[in-house]
Amino acid sequence: MASSTLICDTEQWKDLKAHVDDIKMTHLRELMGDAERCKSMMVEFDGMLLDYSRQLATLETIDKLFKLAEAACLKEKINKMFNGERINSTENRCVLHVALRAPRDADIKCDGKNVVPDVWQVLDKIKEFSERVRSGSWVGATGKALKDVISIGIGGSFLGPLFVHTALQTEPEAIECARGRQLRFLANVDPVDVARNITGMNPETTLVVVVSKTFTTAETMLNARTLREWISSALGPKAVAKHMIAVSTNLPLVEKFGIDPNNAFAFWDWVGGRYSVCSAVGVLPLSLQYGFSVVEKY
User: What is the pTM of this model?
Assistant: First the structure.
């Protein structure tokens, strides 16, 4: 397909659209009565069952969807992504969130450099830090263990980690590992929401994670300054270094804010916000709550 061609102008799209108009007249009950169809629309892989038989679709629909994928050069684009080509054309960036979940010995390149060692350097740092906090060897300014975490971020720096946190709250091992701990997420700049987040929290036992790649995101930094004041007024300005950490790449601004750059955890331009949950954006606050081993399994 020529790059200037919109997918909706292809014959495959028009064919699928006409098919959809026809199938809308079919009731799902009728399709569910076809045992062979239902069986063919279930796929099992690695202990996971994908059942899409309860969609208003037939094998013909699936065939047309595959043809549309071919017209869109989907496989070629997937390969380009894994090969580190700059498929994010609007920002001229690689799109390599797959590298965040890669094993240590994988080789995934961006601009000719294997990024996997960098990923594991950050993951190892998160593991070491979260274990220190959870074990009580890293304590707050008054010597008390840090049992509660507030993660400040917005958009992709908050939605994905919150989603995983919600899911892990019903997982038996995660429940046990999180016993006696709290994890809260602050994205809204509404003072009421800020007040709700710190209600019942003790500055002495709270660790704040500020998530901002540039450390300039307006909403995030406003909330970060608010919680910095909350900590400073209770424990003194020097306490900030023991009670606030960062997920950022802008170390000069992190230090200027009052956070020790050694307590900043990196991520990269090739991590898009909506895909960042497996970077330090999600792994750090979730590891503090549930332990690194639980998050590594996820």
Answer: 0.86
